[in-house]
Amino acid sequence: MRERGGFRHRLELWFGRLNLKRADLVLACSHRIACLEAGYYKVHPDRFSVLFHAFDREADPGFLIRAGDHHDGYFLVVGNVEYLKGFDLIAEAFYRYRKNGGTCKLFVAGTTGFDDPNPQVQKLLKSQGVQRVLDEFGMDTINFLGKISKLELAHVRAKATAVLIGSRFEAFTMVAGEAFLCGCPVLISDRTGWVDLVERYQAAKLFSPYDPEELANAMLEMEDSNIRRMYASRSLLLAEFLCSEELAQKTVKTYISLLEI
User: Fold this and answer.
1) Closest CA to 121 of 148, 94, 142, 97
2) How crowded is residue 133: how many other Cβ atoms within 10 Å of its Cβ?
3) pLDDT tens digits, residue range 102-148?
4) Which pairs from 155-158 meet CB under 8 Å and 24+ separation?
5) Nearest to 121 by CA among 82, 159, 84
6) Fewest beta carbons less than 10 Å away: which of 89, 157, 189, 248?
7) 150 with 70: CB under 8 angstroms?
8) pTM here?
9) Which residues are CB-neighbours of 166 under 8 A, at least 6 positions away?
10) Helix (H, G, I), strand (E, B) or coil at 164
């Protein structure tokens, strides 16, 4: 079985590389992601072009709901509970955060949690971190909100202590961009495509998803109103760039060049 799995992996790798080499141009959401994909598929980095995602504040009424100084004492995770998004890693860090004196809860939007029929969700909810949180701090410490509307999500996001993105890997996540537009403090994994922009604007707290102590300490920091206010203001600076005419024009120019190839 192991040998067959290895062959399938090599075959998928070969097809992936072939597609990249045949493409006129390959778009990536950051320089780091471009280099990672170039190395993984053994394709020259010159074949990649970086295209940051432009946002429009008028695209969603929820973007007008800004986070304020007051928060209701919970970290918000948005999206499916799955392996790549690192929910088990988040839970382990959250357990250590609570053991170290943290008082906030964990809210998860996108799944009903223990009622979700998805086997992957059920497997991750049985992870050590999740079970230790529930056993030591109670079932209401982790709240599963289910699939809610964008407007409902905007209201929940505005009252969060911070939005938490703990992915093992994610090239681009809309969750981060939407949080920046609303001036929300963000804790984000350094394995995502947002690292370049976050570092440029110091717009969020970066952490390694594989270091639970690092994330636990970052969560404790967010309980400090001054630190939270600092990240909220910097997230809005990044939001200005995401909605800027400069970025919009670069996006249009890239797509026009693709049409001309």
Assistant:
1) 142
2) 24
3) 999 999 999 999 999 999 999 999 999 999 999 999 999 999 999 99
4) 155/62, 155/65, 156/76, 156/107, 156/109, 157/62, 157/65, 157/67, 157/76, 157/78, 157/182, 157/184, 158/65, 158/66, 158/67, 158/68, 158/182, 158/184
5) 82
6) 248
7) no
8) 0.89
9) 77, 85, 86, 87, 89, 90, 93, 187, 189, 207, 209, 215
10) strand
Please name the residues in contact with 162: beta carbons below 8 A apart, sequence gap of 6 or more. Answer: 75, 76, 184, 185, 186, 187, 205, 219, 222, 228, 231
**Contact in structure between 55 and 177 (CB atoms under 8 Å):** yes
Q: What pLDDT was estimated at residue 2?
A: 42
pLDDT of residue 5: 57
List, in sequence order, the alpha helices (H) in 105-173: 119-125, 128-137, 150-158
In one-letter notation, the amino acid at residue 5 is: G
Q: Residues 6 or more apart from 212 whose CB is under 8 A from it?
A: 89, 92, 93, 95, 96, 129
User: How far, in Å, CA of 249 to CA of 239, rounded?
Assistant: 16
Alpha helices in the chain (DSSP H): 2-22, 31-41, 87-99, 119-125, 128-137, 150-158, 174-181, 195-201, 212-221, 225-242, 245-260
